[in-house]
Amino acid sequence: MAEPAASVLEVRDLKTVFRTRGGEIHAVNDVSFHLKPGELLGVVGESGSGKSVTMMSLLRLLPSPPADIRGGTALLNGQDLLAMPDEQLRSVRGAKVGFVFQDPMTSLNPVFTLGNQIMEPLIKHLKMTKPQAEARAVELLELVGIPDARRRLYQYPHQFSGGMRQRVMIAIALACDPDVLIADEPTTALDVTIQAQILELVKELRRKLGMAIIWITHDLGVIAGIADRVMVMYGGQIVEHAPVRELFANPQHPYTRALLQTIPRITGERETRLKVIEGQPPILTGPLTACPFRARCEYRFDACDAANPSRRAVDGQAVGQGHDVACHWHAPAMVEPAHA
């Protein structure tokens, strides 16, 4: 039997805090996960759950202050991103890890041509000459489906539609053939038709290039169509992790179940009103000493107020390898509450 592939990215016990005048905000709390070569990991959760802050912490893209990475490791092919000197980390960004941001209009520099912005990492990281970088930039634009690529190389961001700008952002992120591509809600600002085109593009590029991808989104429908595994975040931590089919077929955390019940379904009959998750996300002004979802949970009982639950395996595999959940309701010593 072949040995399982080693992880290209291994994150352990990541903690990120924001220092504010009102106190410290504990935005990321002991997050641990791994990513294997060629795999697509979906990260879901509502706004404020810690998805983007977690991934930006890995590359130290958050301004410091106010952000402060308090602990953890992030091993990229065995090298700890969080312990790297700034100069070495700059050589990793864009070269070994590509990042596609949510809004392409604010991510692209409006006063430089797209060609300049695509060629910059090629010249900086791969030491290409300008003619070599220009040829590669044309290849990249063609790869992401932009027609008449050589002519459009000399145009500016405002001359492209939202979908085309997002394709350009993907081309920039792919320029140096990174080991990992992080896409932070890259289709949120796009209409449904363009969103479908971008998702098909990502599937095709993944087949061609075989890179590992982290896809951040609040849209479970998107995750269902592209991901291998899913981790659900709430309150700055992972509350459930599973293979994508297992998560949709057998959700274990009350928050995951509630998220799935908010997805519209098309049937032949008129549906009842969509389920709403009552309440607001927690304000993380201190370390978590109780379950962060307890105030909004219909299964809440005494243990939820007493301690923040650890992740526990659902399927007998090690935590992080199969299906696991952070919920007192599933702890061996607990019983299902009577009102559930």
User: Spans with pLDDT under 50 lasting ≥5 residues?
Assistant: 333-340
Secondary-structure-based class equals alpha/beta
Q: What is the arithmetic mean of pLDDT?
A: 87
How many beta-strand segments? 12
- Helices, by number, come to 12
Radius of gyration: 21 Å
- In N-to-C order, the SSE pattern is EEEHEEHEHHHHHEHEHEEHHHEE
The helix fraction, in percent, is 25-40%
Produce a short descriptive summary.
Helix content is 31%, strand content 22%.
Provide a descriptive summary of the structure in words.
The protein is α/β, with parallel strands linked by helices and 340 residues long. The chain is built from 12 helices and 12 strands. The protein is globular and about 65 Å long. The relative contact order is 0.14.
Topology record:
Blueprint: E1 9-20, E2 23-35, E3 40-44, H1 51-58, E4 67-76, E5 79-80, H2 86-92, E6 97-100, H3 104-107, H4 114-125, H5 130-143, H6 149-152, H7 162-174, E7 180-184, H8 192-209, E8 212-217, H9 220-226, E9 229-234, E10 237-243, H10 244-249, H11 254-261, H12 302-306, E11 312-313, E12 324-325
Parallel strand pairs: 3-8, 3-9, 6-7, 7-8
Antiparallel strand pairs: 1-2, 1-4, 4-5, 9-10, 10-12, 11-12
Helix pairs in contact: 4-5, 5-7
Describe this protein with a few key phrases.
340 residues, alpha/beta, eight-stranded mixed beta sheet, four-stranded antiparallel beta sheet, 12 helices, globular, disordered C terminus
